[in-house]
Amino acid sequence: MKFIPTELEGVWLIEPVRHRDTRGYFCETFRRDLFEKATGLRPDFVQENESLSSQGVVRGLHYQAGSAAQAKLVRVSEGTIVDVAVDLRRSSPTYGRHICVELSSDNGRQLFIPRGFAHGFAVLSPLARFQYKVDNVYCPEAERTLRLDDKEVNVKWPLDRSAMILSPKDEAGLCWEDCEKFD
């Protein structure tokens, strides 16, 4: 696996090695020892989730507040998305900044997002199957949403706002100044 630090402190782009032959390919999508050696981190994943979304769906920007915060290891097993992570950690040198990364079943890339980030994605393909491991169980009372079109954060989504399919929760997200930050 290739571990590539991003411009956001603690966020890693991971490129698994695919071993191909006439049958297709095999790859390891996670190995704790390699992850720890490359990043210095040792997440204890306790839950794995999957979503299936159609083209135009935007999910996020979600985060869990307080002690319910979650680190995530995200990947796409079918289709293509643009994945977004926004740093909500006040003490971070990259506080308030974000990245956008294309993840797809073709490129096999993964993104590790530590605790203290808002996260979301936009589906670019007809369908996308999105899978992610988290290091803390989901807590509905701690769930928060940062507005995907917040002017302070200024994410350049690959879709026009009029083409986005959003949940009511995501439509009603908090603006940057009102969302909870991490210390």
Radius of gyration equals: 16 Å
Structural class: mainly beta
**Series of H and E elements:** EEEEHEEEEEEEEEH
User: Which outline best applies?
Assistant: globular
Distance between the termini: 32 Å
Count of helical segments? 2
Please tally the β strands and state the result.
13
Please provide a written account of the structure.
It contains two helices and 13 strands. The relative contact order is 0.25. The chain has 183 residues and is mainly beta. A hairpin with a 2-residue loop joins β3 and β4. The strands form three sheets. The chain has a six-stranded antiparallel β-sheet, with helices on one face. Strands 9-8-11-6-13 form a five-stranded antiparallel β-sheet, with no helix packed on it. The protein has a two-stranded antiparallel ribbon with strand order 3-4. The mean pLDDT is 96. The longest helix is centred in the first third of the chain and has 8 residues, at 32-39. The protein has helices at 32-39, 168-171, and strands spanning 2-5, 12-15, 19-21, 24-26, 47-54, 58-64, 72-78, 80-87, 98-104, 110-113, 117-123, 127-134, 143-145.
Topology:
Elements: E1 2-5, E2 12-15, E3 19-21, E4 24-26, H1 32-39, E5 47-54, E6 58-64, E7 72-78, E8 80-87, E9 98-104, E10 110-113, E11 117-123, E12 127-134, E13 143-145, H2 168-171
Antiparallel strand pairs: 1-2, 2-10, 3-4, 5-12, 6-11, 6-13, 7-10, 7-12, 8-9, 8-11
